[in-house]
What does this fold into?
Amino acid sequence: MIQPQHFDQYWQAGVLAEKTGFEMNIHGPYYSELLGGRVELGRSLAKIEATLQAARTINARHVTLHTGHYGETGRGRETNETVANIFSSVVDRLETIWHDDDDEFPVFPWIKNGTPSKVGIETSGRQELWGSLEEVLEVVNHVEGTIPVLNMAHIHARGHGSMRTSEDYGELFDQVRETIGTKEFYCHFSGVEHRGGNAQFYTQIKKSDLNFEPLAEFIVEDGGWLDITLISDSPLLEHDAMYMLQSIEKSRHKQIERKAREDRRRALALQTGASIEDLKAREAEQAALRTGQKVEAAEEESAPEPTPEPEAKAEPEPAAEPEAKPAKGKGKGKGKAKAAKKDDKKSDDDVFDFEEDDDDLF
It folds into this structure.
């Protein structure tokens, strides 16, 4: 038996999942060459063996595996038969590991009383890799114990951006149900960058042309018959997982609101005698009026206030400067000033002692 690395962590995760009722799943090696030569096939099966051992340890409900590149035979029925034979052997090996006769006293309760994991065959996202939706469904339809793993990002990329509306998802699930007759679906979802029918890399859902809202709308509106498990493959793993959950809740609230409006219309139609179509038309008119009023109010708020123009004022003419006139009697003026100074000095000594000015002012 090949023991997986970090075995202690695996069985601790299995015990914790068993106590909490949490469903565990495991993904096999991404690099796998089941259609390659003897060496490539042996290496791939050795990695798958370790994955099956780990799945038993953690009580995984699904073991997701890839196939790899097309072999020398290329596409066609012969290649699909080869893949079916390989996965049939994988299912048998998983049954043997799960019900090991040498393990008389199994440590884990799910090994004794549980059922083996199911082997999931994932759709591929590139043209040179085996795993189109039709190929996966054909193999799953012939190998018991396998299920299709619908990677929406891979299907979208391989179909040149085919998953865009809720009707596209409806056609996809109907095709799977009609081919293999199942209501149980195991799906991966992520944003994806693609070119020429080939996936380049995963990306955040909001930054991709693969929107989750159409899938959420289909699940809420027409997916009552689905038993679906959604796994986030996004680089923002937990963030986009919560985003998908919130999108489903929003779609569910929209459905409830729409049903409430329909019930209200029926009640009004019975009370007033008007038809449901007339009530819908009135609601549309009222909604248009409310929208128009909001637009007008927004335009009024956004319109700039007119600034008042400044009044024209007549500029005052500059006053004419008076012409300077030559002073007359400069000598007399100086004499008067000197006499005044002398009088001031004398007044300090004797108030009544003063000299008369000889100059005749008149």
Residues 326-342, 358-362 have pLDDT under 50 and may be disordered.
